[in-house]
Structure formats: structure tokens, C-alpha cells
Write a structure and sequence with these properties.
This protein is an alpha/beta fold and about 300 residues long. The chain has helices at about 10-20, 75-80, 85-105, 135-155, 180-190, 210-220, 235-250, 275-280, 285-300, and strands at about 1-5, 25-30, 50, 65-70, 105-110, 155-160, 165, 195, 200-205, 205, 225-230, 235, 255. Helices cover about 35% and strands about 20% of the residues.
Length: about 300
């Protein structure tokens, strides 16, 4: 099997690439290295084909049986800083869609739980997104385009709405990294962690290894559609800080400030029934074990990211 991973040098993409190589796939990676880093692929560099570039150049990689599209600007603040990224993300996605139709290959792509902003939990795939954020407008448009390409051209696809993904290899994302990584980094550097509001906002924290498993299941499934990738459990920021403190064995300095962001996501909490029933996916990694693995990784870095 030949696989292409867009954004394959990034946080999630590099883990998918590594797993595909382990499974015996022939893998090509395309990544513009905006928030990715080729060092994430060091252990398998001689086993993959790498092209530096945007996802719109996917056709340069030849024919594949399956495409994992992770090369998408992946954080709300990126889009607030530059709302033209909405159009860029959609343009690049259309290139990927056309490639998959031409080559008759399955498409698995990253969407986001931020789409559920404004709805009470638990969040299920039947909820129609509200207008809340530039980032979610891009992702929802991509979901709709995938369905349209399926209707028009027979595209086989799965869009995965990732919840709050954490784990190792997030250092190249810097300030756009998951809260778990940022809490760990502040603790290792003995620096103050800034929290918007009172810390009661909640996230469904899913380990990157579980996200990889969901991608592999989706790629082999005959199902078309949108699926949640979460745990079905949510933790407040305060809960998460306490868990990291317990694993680290040291206090973390915190500072609460007024939330400066409009349309902030207060809570995400996955309804996991559809993913379990249709894809056979359920998260396996215990949050405390996941935090310990991430901590061990970041403790081993030569330089811990110092953000804000």
C-alpha cells in the first residue's frame, strides 16, 4: 500500500507516518514545515519520501492508495491572526480532493471539535456548527466539500473531528501546542502559566497514539462521513494542571487573567458512539499514563520551548 501524509513532519502527522512505516506502507510526506519539523521523522527518514511544500503540490508525489491530510493550519489563533488562512486551507484541500478523485484513493482528513463551540456537551456529529470562529469555518467547509466530492465523484473519505490532542513532539508548534504540553513546559522551566478565566473550561484530552489508531481504522473502513476522535471524558484546566503536578511532583505557578478572546470554546466533550459503532474506535490511553509519557519525552529535550 502506498500512502501520502500531508503535514507528515508535524505533531500528529509524524506519528501517523511512523505507524504507517511500521505497518509496512510505502510512505510519502509533504510538509511546508510551518509548525512541523523534519527531526520528527529522523527515526524513519531513510524509509520515506519527503517533499517540502504545501498540500496543493500533492500530485508531485505520484499515485497513492490512501491520503492522510494533516497539513492544515491547526489552531484558532492562527486564523485570528490571519483570516486569509481560511481560503488558503480550503484551496489546498480542494487540491487534495481532486488528487484523491483522480487516483481513486481513500481520504482521511483532520477536522476539529472546535466545530461544536456553543453547544452543550456531549457533542455528537449530528450537531450543525454555529458561526463562531474563522478556524471552524475552514474545517466545516472542508467537511462539506468532502461530502460534495463523494456525491459528485464517488470519493471515499472519513473526516475526523479531533478533540484536544496531546502527547510528544509538539515543541515545533510552540504557542499553538495543546494545553497539556504547555503546562508541562512551564513546569519544567519553573515559569508562570497564564490561565484565561477561572480555569473551569473543559477539554476532552485524547492522546496522539489514540488519534493515530483512529486514522488507521478510518483508512480501512468502508464508511464515509464525519467521526469524533475523543475519549468521552472532559477535564477542566484546573483538573489537568493538578494531574500534571501529580506526575511531575512539583508545583506549577499559575496566573488567572480575564479571557481576551471572543467566542472562546468553553467546553468540548465527545460523544463517541458513532466512532465506536462505525469505525470500531475507542480511546485506550489513560490520561495519567499519557501525561507521564509526554513528560518523559519533554524532559529529554535539549531545550524546552519557552513561550509567552
Amino acid at each position: 500500500m502506498n500512502a501520502i501524509v500531508t503535514g507528515g513532519a508535524g505533531f500528529i502527522g509524524s506519528h501517523i507516518t511512523e505507524r504507517l512505516v511500521k505497518e509496512g506502507y510505502s510512505v510519502s510526506v509533504i510538509d511546508a514545515l510551518n509548525t512541523g519539523d523534519k527531526k520528527n521523522l529522523n527515526s524513519i527518514a531513510n524509509k520515506i519520501k519527503f517533499l517540502k511544500g504545501n498540500s496543493s503540490s500533492i500530485s508531485k508525489l505520484g499515485k497513492a492508495d490512501v491520503v492522510f491530510h494533516e497539513g492544515i493550519y491547526s489552531s484558532s489563533p492562527m486564523y485570528r491572526n490571519n483570516n486569509a488562512l481560511v481560503g488558503k486551507a480550503i484551496f489546498e484541500f480542494i487540491s487534495v480532493l481532486n488528487y484523491c478523485v483522480k487516483n481513486k484513493c481513500k481520504l482521511v482528513f483532520a477536522s476539529s471539535s472546535s466545530i461544536y463551540n456553543g453547544y452543550p456537551p456531549p457533542h455528537n456529529e449530528e450537531m450543525v456548527p454555529k458561526i463562531k470562529d474563522f478556524y471552524t469555518e475552514a474545517r466545516y467547509s472542508m467537511e462539506r466539500l468532502a461530502e460534495l466530492f463523494s456525491q459528485m465523484y464517488g470519493l471515499e473519505y472519513c473526516g475526523l473531528r479531533y478533540f484536544s490532542v496531546y502527547g510528544d513532539r509538539e515543541e515545533s508548534k510552540k504557542e499553538f501546542a495543546n494545553m497539556v504540553s504547555q503546562i508541562i513546559w512551564k513546569g519544567l522551566l519553573d515559569k508562570e502559566l497564564v490561565i484565561y478565566g477561572d480555569g473551569t473550561q473543559r477539554r476532552d484530552l485524547v492522546n496522539v497514539a489514540d488519534v493515530v489508531a483512529a486514522n488507521l481504522l478510518a483508512s480501512k473502513s468502508k464508511e464515509n462521513g464525519i467521526f469524533n476522535v475523543g475519549t468521552g471524558v472532559s477535564y477542566s484546566f484546573n483538573d489537568t494542571i493538578e494531574k500534571v503536578v501529580n506526575v511531575m511532583g512539583k508545583k506549577i505557578k499559575t496566573k488567572n487573567i480575564e479571557n481576551p478572546l471572543k467566542n472562546y470554546v468553553d467546553v468540548v466533550h465527545a460523544d463517541t458512539k458513532k466512532s465506536l459503532d462505525k469505525l470500531g474506535f475507542s480511546a485506550k490511553i489513560n490520561i495519567d499514563d499519557g501525561i507521564k509519557e509526554a513528560l518523559d519525552y519533554y524532559k529529554g529535550l535539549k531545550k524546552v520551548p519557552d513561550i509567552f
